[in-house]
Design brief:
Chain A is α/β, with parallel strands linked by helices. Chain A has 6 helices and 8 strands, in the order H-E-E-E-E-H-E-H-E-H-E-E-H-H. A 3-stranded mixed β-sheet of chain B has the order 1-3-2, with helices on both faces. In chain B, helix 14 (303-316) packs antiparallel against helix 15 and helix 17 runs antiparallel to helix 18 (376-384). Chain B starts with a helix and ends with a helix. Classes of the chains: A alpha/beta (252), B mainly alpha (385).
Chain lengths: 252, 385
């Protein structure tokens, strides 16, 4: 029932204008970090995928079918993309018992660190004093991440998270009427981020986050586009094909 | 309309003919292995499934097989084997009085509840209430209610209609709806409690003690106790006083009889009692903790209770508290089965009371018993100094 409070706040913010996402940086790589091709073993953790609709007032309406479709489509696209990354990518087999608890803590820690990077580094106006130096990217999960069970000698861990809320018909109609009244109402939320963690040092070596991603993750083509955007700028990746570069201009 | 649910349920309850000393109230039909079908409900189950993936691996979950088996047994006894098969129960180490239910049948029981319950019947009352949230699909109806209400507000806000009255009405409606759900869960939970053959005054007794603890907390913090009958605008639950009152009235309709299984409950909790007490002491709630300790000590002060009381008084740390704490530690030690930490507490309390030699002797006793203690080096400096 605690959700009521959260949703109320959301509802109250409905009319508020959208945060200008253009001020946000989208990607960062640890200075001096180079991932030589064909050498690294990368573990892919279970992607966190949520897909739903956005109600007229902006409440998130989870949709099980869309999420299942997205999980399948994104999974296929990720496997496809892995083949082109130039590295060995392995799906992480989740452990049981106490090991699972340790893994869950690291997953939560990664989400927290990634959220901190997005808030306190990617948004220049909000940058922490210790993160202000140019070309600085100094974040990590601690070296103990390498002691997680089942890593199997992997060098890096890849985390992928996407969150999509498609504007409902009601939301779009509201947006239209709001536009007539010159009030900005955003329809749809399409966020995603991907990060690479060095399992030997625990450092976050690359993070790509975008609060306005393209690609309808429910469809195979859309998921392919989303994965391209998520992995754009992946260190040590062979140069993007021209098609991918053209797609980076989002359609939305 | 939602406000009708409570009177309707209450009416249904009262309308049943009173037969012997105790009757069994009819339970609603139940479909085993229920699967959600609508878009909304399937979405909420999916969200809850993701939450449960995290909960399954969460470090705060108590994995003790014996405690979990006991709690599950009480749950199944309360709602019946068919219904309890739909529930996964997680006992979470949070020192507050609460339990939660998710759309998909995940249920959490907070460790603070175990400290506050006095009998299996009271645990059954909590489980009955929580299971009713699941059975009545409250997550779904609550979500739909919030969505329709917020949609209305979004349009009204855009059109500049409704002024201040409409948002007040709609927002007040969310909370009123939530309170009606809680009351409905209370009443259906009460039926489970009755059907399972437990003492039916258990939930009313429980809420009465919760109120007393809140009052003790307030008094301990030099504030005025404030039990109300009427719920506030933003309250998600009916007030404790309301709940105790209607549950007491319902119990009076049923009559006496039933088992409370208090001894069985105490035996099941006993291995965890020292840890539950330790968590409670850390809440910095002298009045509430003292009330709980006194409640637990109705049949005499056992060693864990005395040790916890010593810690509680030593933490507050007035000179008179230190003197009282030393007394509690000594009593605990006299029982013969006190933890080594009782000697540490005694030593520290005596040191700070100016009884240096006696204090150092107690600390030496502590180190003799727990040479590998994490604070051994620090305690050693106190002895040397």
């Amino acid at each position: 029932m605690l959700r009521i409070a959260r949703d109320m706040i959301l509802a109250c913010l409905v009319a508020a204008a959208a945060v200008p996402a253009s001020a946000q940086e989208r990607s960062a790589i640890k200075p001096g970090f180079v991932l030589p091709p064909d050498t690294a073993r990368i573990l892919l953790f279970r992607p966190s995928i949520t897909v739903g609709a956005q109600s007229t007032a902006g409440l998130f309406e989870p949709n099980a079918d869309w999420t299942a479709q997205a999980r399948e489509a994104l999974g296929a696209s990720l496997r496809e993309a892995e083949a082109h990354l130039g590295h060995t990518v392995i799906d992480y087999a989740a452990p049981d018992g106490a090991d699972a608890a340790a893994l869950a803590e690291y997953h939560a820690l990664f989400d927290t660190v990634a959220a901190a990077v997005i808030e306190f580094q990617f948004f220049p106006g909000n940058r922490l004093p210790t993160k202000k130096r140019k070309d600085q990217f100094d974040w990590g999960l601690g070296p103990e991440v390498g002691t997680l069970p089942g890593l199997g000698g992997a060098d890096y861990a890849l985390f992928v998270t996407t969150e999509d809320a498609f504007g409902s018909t009601g939301r779009k109609v509201l947006q239209l009427f709001a536009a007539l009244a010159r009030v900005s109402v955003v329809s749809g939320v399409h966020k995603g981020f991907a990060g690479l963690v060095d399992l030997h040092s625990g450092e976050l070596v690359w993070l790509n986050a975008d609060l306005q991603m393209g690609g309808d993750v429910r469809t195979p083509e859309g998921a392919r586009k989303r994965v391209r955007e998520l992995l754009a700028g992946f260190p040590g990746k062979p140069a993007d094909t021209p098609v991918a570069a053209a797609d980076a201009n989002r359609a939305r | 309309m939602c406000r009708l649910i409570v009177p309707l349920l209450a009416a249904a309850l009262c309308a049943a003919p009173v037969q012997a000393a105790r009757e069994t109230l009819p339970l609603p039909p139940f479909t085993t292995a229920y699967q959600p079908t609508t878009v909304d409900e399937r979405g909420l189950w999916m969200e809850a499934d993701e939450d449960e993936r995290r909960m399954r691996d969460a470090p705060e979950v108590i994995r003790d097989p014996a405690l979990n088996a006991y709690a599950r047994e009480v749950l199944c006894r309360t709602v019946g084997p068919a219904r309890c098969a739909a529930i996964r129960l997680y006992i979470v180490r949070i020192p507050m009085f609460n339990a939660t239910t998710y759309a998909n049948g995940m249920m959490t029981l907070w460790s603070g509840a175990l400290l506050r319950l006095h009998s299996e019947a009271e645990l059954a009352a909590m489980f009955g209430h929580e299971f009713s949230h699941f059975e009545l699909r409250h997550t779904l109806t609550g979500f739909q209610r919030r969505r329709s209400g917020s949609d209305l507000l979004a349009w009204a806000g855009l059109l500049g209609a409704g002024g201040i009255a409409l948002p007040t009405m709609v927002v007040g409606g969310f909370y009123r709806f939530s309170r009606a759900q809680e009351a409905a869960a209370d009443m259906l939970g009460f039926r489970y409690l009755t059907a399972a053959g437990y003492v039916v005054t258990a939930p009313a007794d429980l809420w009465t003690r919760v109120m007393a603890e809140q009052d003790a907390t307030e008094i301990g913090r030099y504030r005025k106790p404030n039990q109300r009958y009427v719920a506030g605008f933003f309250d998600t639950h009916p007030t404790e006083l309301t709940r105790a009152t209607y549950l007491r009235a319902a119990a009076a309709q049923i009559g006496g009889g039933g088992v409370d299984e208090a001894a069985r409950f105490r035996a099941a909790i006993a291995p965890w009692l020292p840890r539950l007490l330790g968590d409670q002491i850390k809440r910095n709630d002298f009045g509430g903790s003292e009330y709980l300790l006194n409640q637990l000590a109705v049949d005499g002060w056992t060693t864990p209770l005395l040790f916890a009381r010593g810690e509680l008084y030593r933490e507050r740390g007035n000179p008179r508290d230190l003197s009282a704490a030393a007394g509690f530690y000594r009593e605990a030690i006299a029982h013969g089965d006190a933890p080594a930490e009782a000697y540490r507490g005694l030593g520290l309390a005596l040191l700070r009371s100016g009884q240096v030699e006696a204090g150092k002797a107690a600390l030496r006793d502590y180190l003799a018993r727990r040479a590998d203690a994490g604070d051994a080096a620090m305690i050693a400096t106190l002895i040397a100094g």
